[in-house]
Amino acid sequence: MTSDGDPLERVRARIREVISGSSVPEDPGHSINTLKWLLKFDPRADEALQIAALGHDIDRAVEENKVARANFSDYDDFKAAHARHSAEMLAVILEECGIDDRTLVDEVFRLVLLHEVGGDARSDLLVDADSVSYFDVNLPLYRERNSREETLRRCIWGYRRLSRRARIVAAEIPSHNDELAQLMEEAIARAGELDELQSGSAAARS
Ligand SMILES: [Fe+2]
Predict the structure, then answer these.
(1) How many CA atoms lie within 13 Å of 122's alpha carbon, on the beta-carbon side?
(2) Is pLDDT above 90 for 102?
(3) Domain enclosing residue 42, as ranges
(4) What's the gap in Å between 58 CA and the centre of ligand 1?
(5) What is the CA(179)–ligand 1 centre distance, in A?
(6) Helix boundaries (H) for the chain
């Protein structure tokens, strides 16, 4: 079936088209790769999850409207604004492509809104696919644009939000070079230390 006839195919084609305009070079590959990891983690992932995987970072693709990191002092606040804007953009695309299934539209919106933090089994799955994909395809290009310190921070942040299962997968992804292998090793060690600190202070509070 051509993309003209199938609304969901039109959605996929439109997401691809918008993301191909991103100034972030890894964005098109990351979109497809996140879907790949989603289907590896859950081969039966439904249409809402698949669309959310493809479009979760669509905010970054339109330079003049994208949420700017420089406007936020807190990284998590920046990520929350990015997630909301991506969810809103996808809702418009779904509507423009003729999707009238309200349940599907609402679920794509909800999943993308939660794609940085998770909170239930389905959004956690998207978090895992997104984060593993960062280590699989984004990391070398991110490092090219950022300092080692910032890349390390980003790796620790990404690794800590993974499930136990996805941490094993991320740790086993072959590194692109020796520097990134060492950086990844350090990120995993630091993430473990921070997790221990956090569980220690949680135990102290209880
Ligand atoms: Fe992403």
Answers:
(1) 18
(2) yes
(3) 7-205
(4) 9
(5) 23
(6) 7-19, 27-41, 47-55, 75-96, 102-113, 121-133, 139-145, 148-160, 164-172, 178-205
Domain count, the chain: 1
Work out whether the CA dihedral 72, 77, 83, 85 comes out positive or negative: negative
Task: DSSP letter for 58, please.
Answer: G
Q: What separation in Å is there between the alpha carbon of 83 and the centre of ligand 1?
A: 9
CA 27 to ligand 1 centroid distance, Å: 8
**Is 90 contained in some domain?**
yes
Query: Has residue 26 been placed in a domain?
Result: yes
68 or 111: which carries more pLDDT confidence?
111
pTM equals: 0.91
Residue 135 has pLDDT above 60, yes or no: yes
Q: Which residue is it, tokens 């991110």?
A: 142
